[in-house]
Fold:
Amino acid sequence: MLRFDKLIRASMIVRDVKQQYPQTVAVFEQFGFRSICDECTIEVVARRQGLRPFEIIDALNCSVVLKGGYRE
Structure:
């Protein structure tokens, strides 16, 4: 489980999340996020694509937890 202060949030920049948690790249691709969107927040890109930000955030956090990407 991720500590609260380590959770991925909708207000985070896509590039920052990809750099901190490389395993999230596949999740971003699954939701149709393109590299041109890397400088935007997750929420902005999700809304532009008609997606629900919370679903993307859940998938991203799950990918980090399930693949053991979080280290204290």
Remarks:
- The chain has a mean pLDDT of 90.
- The CA atoms of residues 32 and 49 lie 8 Å apart.
- Residues 4-66 form a domain with the SP0561-like fold (CATH 1.10.3910.10).
- The chain has one domain: 4-66.
